[in-house]
Amino acid sequence: MMQILLVGNPNVGKSAIFSRLTGTYIIASNYPGTTVEFTKGYLKLGGERVQVIDVPGTYTLEPTSKAEEVAVEMLKEGDLVIDVVDATNLERNLNLTLQLLERGIPVIVALNIWDDTQHRGINIDVNKLEELLGVPVVPTVGVTGQGIKELVRRIPEAKAPETTYFGSTSDERWARAGDIISQVQSLSHRHHTWSEVLEDASNHPVGGAFIALVVFFATFWFIRFIGESIIGYVTDPLFEWLWTPFLMKVSLALASGGFWHSVLIGNLIAGEIDYFQSFGLLSTGFYIPFGAVLPYIVSFYLALGILEDVGYLPRLAVLMDTIMHRLGLHGYAIIPTMLGFGCNVPGVMATRILESRKQRLIAATLISIAVPCAALQAMIIGLVGQQGGQYVAIVYGSLFASWVIIGLILNRIVKGFNPELLVEIPPYRLPPWRVIGEKLWLRLSGFIRGALPIVLGTVFVVNILYIFGLFNTIANIAAPIVSGLLGLPKESVVALVIGFLRKDVAMGMLAPLTLTAKQLVISSTVLAMFFPCVATFVILVRELGVRDTLKATAIMVAAALIVGSLQNLVL
Amino acid sequence: MTMHQGRQLTLRQMGIGQTGTVIEILGGRGLIRRLEALGIRPGKKVTKISSALLRGPVTLRVDNAQVAVGFGMANRIIVGVG
Predict the structure, then answer these.
(1) How does DSSP assign A240-268, residue by residue?
(2) In this complex, how many residue pairs, one in chain A and one in chain B, have their CB atoms less than 8 Å apart?
């Protein structure tokens, strides 16, 4: 099958074009280097099915990063290249174009972000560019889809031009790019766009910090507001008016008792379904993912999507860089960390964008220890929040303090280098709502497909443990630590055990234990830090290897117990 | 080495909003290549946009792109101004 490669600088919109060509939605975000692996899709070209591959962004074919090495490797397999060029940064992008032409592989250029050239007063003579390069050049706007049809129509015209530039040196190439620019591009005056005004403000160190604080609180408020609204106006009413009556009917049909009743409905609390305490597959097993967690998945990923696509995150990386260096990371590690707040799995996977093993190890460990995923956060807000917002704040505060302190320690212990930040900052762009909607849908359906089975499986396991009386055994074994050190009733240890499977269900297990506010704080914090959930564990093994994962896990267990004990002493 | 009239500063020493031409990058092939890939190379006009607090990264504009450069690297990019 023919293989078409999408090649280009980071952040030029390759992923948006990929999703237009193949209909395969992938996460395309407005910061460089987030496509850490290649993605495959298919396109019908002239009646034939061809494979399209979205290659990680690369500035040059003399690789300076892991992503670029991957890209160079992939070029060997491609039959045709669609070179996606940022029209607003033509000279630098042409450097890569010329390197591609040197390889003798057929190329067609997608002159993307075409709409922005008008706003910035950049005029490009497309025909002249085509003439000078010797390959077809098609202006496109990946985000809206403009020009894509034309691009596809002209793919057959892609060629490796006869005038070859084999053996150019880097200087010769840049000179050539500059020469082409002078013939093809002219700049006219334009007004300061709103995005530039905002950029100047956020670049100013004090202004930037101020904006960061505003963004932080606004994001927090937004996530809470959307999450609670969905719960209050959509999911809780649905559960109360539709699901509960249905379950009560099922309960009666099962004669209110027996094995199947326990498994499906769980325990009736005072003759009623209690969605946190009943623990049946259909009651708690459905409520946790759909009633408690899903609203926060929606609100979190909506907020993250907006931040990503507006282009704020790389600026945040610059702001955080100095602090992160003390933790053995650099500013860019903020991105996997923020992804971790949605789910630790993509967060840990994204640590691949960091250059050194030390950074990847520290970042992944810190994410697993101190970054609670959205599902866990939703349950914390739901359960601990009932006691008062200040307790939720204590939990988050403890996690943040752990993040900093453990990072400082790991920075000393872990061997390796910590390179400096060198990253392109994309311009602010209006969030393309359609893309945000698609991304949200993608993440949402991913959550339902991935999490729901595990949640149901976990609830089922909990029921089996109850039925076979294994709970008491486990609780008795761990009692000295759990009660002595942490001040929790020994039954809560089972929540920690279940935390290995799913942390949200584990939180749910704390509900019937009637814990004091202090105990809720301790158990939530320890649960968040203790041991990665199985999904995260698998990814850690994949990214770090077995040995480092075991080291990281040991740190997590120790840290969780230390922090929990401290909380027990202090609160 | 091109003769350049006017002063030579490191990127770090430049003032905010100042524009200059990159003269030299004090570093090995690796550093030179990484910076060059982002468009920062001798002969290019760059404008310093900001520098983060506490020895943080320096942000500069080259052509239409903004690039954040770590503090240590910023000390090794020599720019001619004036």
Answers:
(1) IIIIHHHHHHHHHHTTT-SHHHHHHTB--
(2) 99
